[in-house]
Design a protein that fits this description.
656 residues; alpha+beta; TIM Barrel; Immunoglobulin-like; 3 domains; six-stranded antiparallel beta sheet; five-stranded mixed beta sheet
C-alpha cells in the first residue's frame, strides 16, 4: 500500500525538482564536462491524449567525432526531455525535432562547449573517464579513455523502490532499520564496489489481496500475470520442494513502489486483473523521477548502474493483452532515452530463466524493433541481459539476430563451479565480446542442492571467492557481480528472519576488492589472459555441484604471465616433491604432470618464473618458496604446497 508519507514526499520532491532541474538554454555560456549528463528540456505547444505513445522527440547532436540522433522521452504534462553527454571536448550543437511536428518541440537549436576533466578530478570519480566499453581485443572492459575497468558489483534489484529509502540530507545512519539508500552506497563504496545492478520497474507487484503468482486464461491457454517475489521467507529444500513451491506461489506479493507511485497507471486491460496488471501504454513519469536521483547519485559516487528494463514474469501478459512487440519496444526505448546519458550498462529484459511460454525468441522481435526504429544507444552503452545459463546460449542460437548484445554474461542457474564453463564458452565465441558472471553464488544461500552456507560464515565467504576467482580465470575478464540473500530481494518485511541491513554486513563482501588486486597486479595485462584450466593438473574432481576442489588458470599467449586459483582442497600432494629421473647420454626425463603433486604446465621450457602466492582473504602477495620456480624441458613445474589448506591464488611471471 502506498502511504500518505510517500505521497507527501512525492509532492515536495516534484516541486523541488521542477525548480532545480538545469536545462540548456539556446546557447550555454558556461562550459560543461565531457561524460557528464546534460538535459535539454522542451515544452510541447499542444496537448496530446497520451504523450508517451503519441509523440517522438529527438535532437540531432553534433560534436567532435560525433553526429547522431538522440531520442528523448515524455516527463509529465507537456514536458519532454532529451539527455545527452559530450564524448569529447569541444563545441557541440543540437537541433530538435518531433513526430508529429510541434512548435514547442521541433526546430529548437542550441550549443554548448565541453571541457575535459583533470586527472585529479578523474581520481576523485573514475566514471569521469567515460562510459564502459570493450577493450580492443574484445575480452575485457575499459573506460572510454582506455583505463581498465573491472566489474566489482552488487545486486540491488529493488533499488528504485521504497526498500532503499531516500533522505535529502547526507547524515550517515547506522546499518539497520533506519539506514537509507545513501548509507548503503557509502558502505559498499568503502568495500571497493563500483557497480550496482537494478531492475527498473515491477509493474504488477503489490499488496492487492491476491497471491504472488497469478495465472489467467486466454484463448484456452494459460498466461502468467505475475510471478512475484513474496513478502515473507519460504524455506526450500530437496525434501519439501513441492510444498514449498506451493506456499511461495500463494504468499502475498512483495510491494514495489516509490514516492512517485507505480511505474504505469491503472486500470489495466487484463480481464479480472485490471487492478493488478497496469496499463503498460500509460507510463507514470513520477515513478521514474525518483529513480533518476538514485542513478545520478550512484554515478556521482563512482558506481556504474547495470539497469534491466523488466523481470521476465511481466512479459507474458504484456504480449497477450497489449500490442506486441510495439508497446514493449516503446518501453525499452523509454529506458534507453531516460538513462542512456548516465554511465549505465543496459538490458532490455531480465531473463534469468528462459521459459517456454515467453522465451528469448519471443522477446527478441521487440528488442530488434527498438534498434530498427531508434538505433543502438547513441553514447555507446553496452547492452546485455541477465540470463540462464549464458547469453551465448540464450541469444545466439541459429537464426537469432541478436546484434543488440554487446556484453556477455552467465547467471542464475546453475551457480556452482561447474557453471564457470559457460564463461569459457563465451570467451572463445565469435564475435568476441567481454563477459562476466552476473549471478553466481549468492552469499547466505542454502538452496535445494545443499551446497550453500550461512551468511557471514567462513564457508560462505570461500564460496563467494570461488565464484569470483573461478569465473574470472574461466574467461570472465569483465568482472564479477556479487549477490546476497536478503539483499537481492530487499528483504525488510517482518516475515524475513534475516533483513537486508544485516546481510549488507556479511563478511563475504569484504573480499570483493581483492579481485582487482589479483587481476591488476600487472596493470592491464590481465586483459590478454586466455583461460585454460588444464594448465593446472590435476584441476578437477567429479563434484560439479560445489565450490571446493577445483583449480583454474589463464595465461597470455606469450606464456610469460599466468594467474592461477586453487579452491580449498584443489592442491594435491602425495608424498615428497618428485625428483626427475636422469639417464646416461639422455639427461633428465620429466615426470608426468600431476603425478603425485599439483603441476602447472604450458610454460616456456627451462625458464625461471617469479612465483608468488596470493591470499584472497587479505589481498596480499607472498613468495612461493624462494620466489622463483624453474620449469623443466617440457615446460612444466611442480608447485610447492600453499601456505595453508584454504583457497589460494598464484602468479607466475617470466623472469627476463
Amino acid at each position: 500500500m502506498i502511504t500518505m508519507r510517500y505521497l507527501v514526499r512525492s509532492a515536495l520532491y516534484l516541486l523541488l525538482s521542477m525548480a532545480s532541474v538545469a536545462a540548456f538554454a539556446a546557447s550555454s555560456a558556461s562550459p560543461v564536462h565531457v561524460w557528464e549528463k546534460q538535459e535539454i528540456t522542451l515544452t510541447a505547444a499542444k496537448a496530446f491524449p497520451n504523450p508517451y505513445t503519441d509523440v517522438k522527440v529527438w535532437v540531432d547532436l553534433a560534436g567532435p567525432n560525433f553526429k547522431k540522433r538522440v531520442y528523448g522521452f515524455w516527463d509529465g504534462d507537456r514536458i519532454f526531455r532529451v539527455r545527452v553527454v559530450a564524448t569529447e571536448p569541444g563545441q557541440w550543437t543540437w537541433t530538435s525535432g518531433s513526430s508529429p511536428s510541434d512548435d514547442g518541440l521541433s526546430g529548437k537549436t542550441g550549443s554548448f562547449t565541453a571541457i575535459a576533466w583533470t586527472e585529479s578530478e578523474k581520481e576523485e570519480n573514475p566514471l569521469r573517464r567515460g562510459f564502459i566499453q570493450a577493450t580492443a581485443n574484445g575480452h575485457a572492459l575499459q573506460f572510454a579513455d582506455g583505463s581498465p575497468y573491472l566489474i566489482e558489483g552488487d545486486t540491488w534489484w529493488s533499488f528504485g523502490t521504497f526498500h532503499y529509502p531516500w533522505f535529502d540530507d547526507d547524515n550517515p545512519r547506522p546499518m539497520g532499520p533506519q539506514a537509507g539508500f545513501k548509507d548503503y552506497v557509502r558502505f559498499r563504496r568503502s568495500q571497493g564496489f563500483n557497480l550496482v545492478s537494478i531492475l527498473l520497474s515491477f509493474p504488477a507487484w503489490g499488496h492487492d489481496g491476491k497471491p504472488a503468482t497469478i495465472i489467467t486464461q486466454k484463448d484456452g491457454h494459460s498466461v502468467v500475470v505475475r510471478g512475484a517475489w513474496v513478502d515473507k521467507a519460504v524455506e526450500f529444500s530437496a525434501q519439501n520442494l513441492r510444498s514449498a513451491s506451493e506456499a511461495y506461489r500463494n504468499a502475498p506479493a512483495k510491494e514495489e513502489y516509490n514516492e512517485g507511485g507505480r511505474p504505469f497507471l491503472f486500470p489495466g486491460k487484463v480481464p479480472g486483473y485490471e487492478d493488478v496488471y497496469p496499463n503498460v501504454e500509460r507510463i507514470n513519469p513520477a515513478f521514474f523521477k525518483y529513480v533518476d536521483r538514485k542513478v545520478d547519485y550512484l554515478n556521482e559516487h563512482g558506481f556504474v548502474v547495470f539497469m534491466e528494463a523488466l523481470r521476465r514474469d511481466q512479459t507474458e501478459a504484456w504480449k497477450q493483452f497489449y500490442p506486441w512487440p510495439d508497446s514493449y519496444a516503446r518501453y525499452v526505448e523509454y529506458m534507453y532515452a531516460r538513462y542512456g546519458a548516465n554511465n549505465t550498462i543496459l538490458s532490455p529484459v531480465h531473463l534469468d530463466l528462459n521459459p517456454v511460454a515467453m522465451s528469448a525468441s519471443d522477446i527478441l522481435p521487440a528488442i530488434n524493433m527498438v534498434y530498427k526504429e531508434y538505433g543502438p544507444p547513441p553514447f555507446g552503452n553496452l547492452v546485455t541481459t541477465n540470463t540462464q545459463p549464458s547469453t551465448l546460449v540464450m541469444w545466439k542460437q541459429p537464426g537469432m539476430d541478436s546484434t543488440f548484445l554487446t556484453l556477455h554474461q552467465i547467471g542464475n542457474l546453475p551457480r556452482e563451479h561447474g557453471s564457470y564453463f559457460f564463461l569459457t564458452d563465451e570467451f572463445f565465441a565469435k564475435p568476441t565480446l567481454p563477459a562476466f558472471n552476473g549471478e553466481g553464488y549468492y552469499s547466505g544461500r542454502t538452496g535445494i542442492n545443499g551446497h550453500g552456507a550461512a551468511g557471514g560464515s567462513q564457508d560462505d565467504s570461500r564460496y563467494v571467492r570461488s565464484a569470483m576467482y573461478g569465473s574470472f580465470l574461466s574467461g570472465g575478464l569483465g568482472g564479477f557481480l556479487y549477490g546476497s540473500e536478503a539483499i537481492w530481494g530487499a528483504d525488510i518485511e517482518a516475515g524475513f528472519p534475516v533483513k537486508m541491513w544485516d546481510a549488507f554486513q556479511w563478511d563475504a563482501a569484504n573480499y570483493m576488492k581483492h579481485l582487482r588486486t589479483f587481476a591488476m597486479s600487472q596493470g592491464d595485462r590481465y586483459q590478454e589472459l586466455v583461460p585454460n584450466f588444464d594448465l593446472v593438473t590435476p584441476s578437477r574432481t567429479q563434484d560439479v555441484i560445489g565450490f571446493d576442489g577445483w583449480a583454474y588458470a589463464a595465461e597470455t599467449s606469450e606464456r610469460d604471465f599466468m594467474l592461477v586459483y586453487f579452491e580449498k582442497g584443489a592442491y594435491f600432494k602425495h608424498g615428497d616433491m618428485p625428483v626427475e629421473r636422469t639417464f646416461p647420454a639422455v639427461g633428465p626425463i620429466p615426470n608426468i604432470p600431476g603425478d603425485g603433486i599439483t603441476t602447472v604446465r604450458g610454460l616456456i621450457a627451462n625458464a625461471a618464473y617469479d612465483a608468488q602466492w596470493f591470499d584472497p582473504r587479505k589481498g596480499a602477495w607472498q613468495d612461493v618458496g624462494t620466489g622463483t620456480l624453474k620449469t623443466n624441458l617440457s615446460g612444466w613445474v611442480a608447485i610447492p604446497p600453499p601456505p595453508s589448506d584454504d583457497d589460494w591464488g598464484m602468479r607466475l611471471l617470466l623472469r627476463k
